[in-house]
Amino acid sequence: MRIEGNDQRLAAATAIQLQQTGVQQMLAPKTAQHQDAQKASKENTVQSIAGDKVSINVELSKKTVDTLQKMGTISDFLNSVATNLRQTNEGLKATAAIVTDMKSSLDQIIKIYPPYSIESKERIDQLMSYSSLKKQIMSLMVPAPPAPIYETVKHLWGDLFSGANSTVQTPTLPLDAPDSHVNAAAKQLDVISSQIGLVQDSMSKSITGS
Prior knowledge:
This protein is mainly alpha-helical. The chain has seven helices and three strands.
């Protein structure tokens, strides 16, 4: 079943229309013998953050599909998937932005020549900014994507959100951290940025089926 729309309301309306025009009959097995074994594969369209239409392949058991149809909750299910996916994407974008700002603070130290002294006010200010951003990312709770997509990125998700309370774990730098530690932290932030991009790409491929 393909449900297309530019927003969630259209997706819901289309789901209801399909239900009223006999989608349950189309999904019914041809013989009673295969009724329990058959599964209905639903290709549903939800709205991404940017407003573009994307297709998500969601496998539901025949029993689950029948139950959703009888209760009139297919549109609710689609809306829930769309909402959860949007929240995940927004969280990943916010995380990526903070990591970029953290790296920028360290670059202000690394790229200065001659190097700052450990006691330099400018250097301390950049490390204070870094620590403040680290607190932000530690408090940022990014919800995992909905189940059909999460299964495809589960291992990547666990590697990225490996910190306390399933947050992104970034390096800690005291205000008197030597340049070698600052350089190492900057490289680790590059790795984290790559991990975020990999999760986003994998989610996109899972959604589009590419």
